[in-house]
């Protein structure tokens, strides 16, 4: 099989993985500290945000260790995910790649499950809140572990794949033998000297695609429900404000995986498999995978800062308003001699003070 010179002579995959890993480490730890200090969030919401940050950290560490290259190879009619980075035994490398793909799916599961929890919190009792947390947690891990099993059965190469892929792996990582995963509609069978269908790989690919599509639908539907609840104005003003702010944070957390995971997966994984030409995009877009856990805490920190600033500003206005009303009331109760108005008939001073107090209060509160 004739291939061009390998595509990773520059070492960009390792550089990209290490840089994003460092950014993720710094800002996810910062987010954990910042989230714990936001008073408007309940302990339940704080735990969810901290758990999500820990998952992002683990995802980033996996990316640093595997520095994956994902590309569609026309000659093999398959998508390859090849390990780069630190040199490790093949078996361990394959396990890390399987974990990497699992975490890609897990990262997409987080925001929609959080959206579901917020919707139930808005509509159900506290008992139901605990139940939905347990249910969404079980769903998240069940979906992810099912993906892990399917990836192991459908994407791990066999001996025939190794014979076919030796030059391909070198082309993709420039280092010769390395761990890799392969997704295709057909696998080459050396006994038959022909390509044969690979149904388990089909099932795995369609399963991952279904997870991405369904999580997108869930997030959008839940976001609409939350917006409708906010418009109804149910609960106190503080409760509505907190829900609106949390909804904004969640939609930001959903948008980033959509841009850095969903779109690269569709372009680099699905489109080549259905024979749609994507040119060099299928090689370079997957580098965005590593930026999802790195950029997400930065965006959330910005949202938390904006929320904190708005809350502080509102509190300041409330304090100023209360202070102005108090000073006005005090002044009108004991007005300065220079503006006191007397009525020669007597009692006019009290009536005028009472009238001015009411007029000034109306002006301040309007």
From TrEMBL:
<feature type="transmembrane region" description="Helical">
    <location>
        <begin position="15"/>
        <end position="34"/>
    </location>
</feature>
<feature type="transmembrane region" description="Helical">
    <location>
        <begin position="54"/>
        <end position="74"/>
    </location>
</feature>
<keyword id="KW-0812">Transmembrane</keyword>
<keyword id="KW-1133">Transmembrane helix</keyword>
<keyword id="KW-0472">Membrane</keyword>
<feature type="transmembrane region" description="Helical">
    <location>
        <begin position="246"/>
        <end position="267"/>
    </location>
</feature>
<feature type="transmembrane region" description="Helical">
    <location>
        <begin position="132"/>
        <end position="156"/>
    </location>
</feature>
<feature type="transmembrane region" description="Helical">
    <location>
        <begin position="287"/>
        <end position="307"/>
    </location>
</feature>
<feature type="transmembrane region" description="Helical">
    <location>
        <begin position="86"/>
        <end position="111"/>
    </location>
</feature>
<feature type="transmembrane region" description="Helical">
    <location>
        <begin position="200"/>
        <end position="226"/>
    </location>
</feature>
<protein>
    <recommendedName>
        <fullName>G-protein coupled receptors family 1 profile domain-containing protein</fullName>
    </recommendedName>
</protein>
<dbReference type="Pfam" id="PF10326">
    <property type="entry name" value="7TM_GPCR_Str"/>
</dbReference>
<dbReference type="InterPro" id="IPR019428">
    <property type="entry name" value="7TM_GPCR_serpentine_rcpt_Str"/>
</dbReference>
